[in-house]
Amino acid sequence: MIGGTAVELAPYDPNWPQDFERIRDKLQRLLAPFVVTIEHIGSTSIPGIAAKPLIDVDIILRNSADISAATQILLEQNYEPRGNRYDDDVWAFMMRDSQPPERVYLCPPNNQTHERRMIFRNYLRAHPAEAVAYAKLKLKLAEIHRHDGDRYTAEKRPFIDAIIEKAGNPKRP
Hints:
The protein is of the alpha+beta class. The chain is 46% helix and 17% strand. The protein has helices at 16-31, 66-76, 112-126, 128-144, 149-168, and strands at residues 35-41, 55-61, 80-83, 91-95, 102-107.
């Protein structure tokens, strides 16, 4: 397999928002002393579009010093550590055994990666035509890079960057 993981997209599942609520409640109970907010991110957070069938969650912590304690709690709950892959102070964890699987990110306050994710999610939620265009791009890239998850992710970047730029300039259509 080239580039890591296979790319599996599923049609939008109307249960994803409820799945997130359940996951958020669990994570809030586990990490309460450290949490500022817990956000549903990724394509499962955007109504109507195909996505990898897993729930992506950003957990914003009170401060960077909380990452170690929060990590320990997640490890004790059998979350698999996935590291700080992009050197952006975002620490990833997977829970493959849950239904649907969970990918959780611990983020320090004012983290740029988290802020970009929120801008992108909120823009696509508010602009269904852009969400449809993103869904079409994802399906095309998943077909082309079926066995190369890293390439699939990298080739979505120009679209994501353009949406974030557009969202920052409300005068643009």
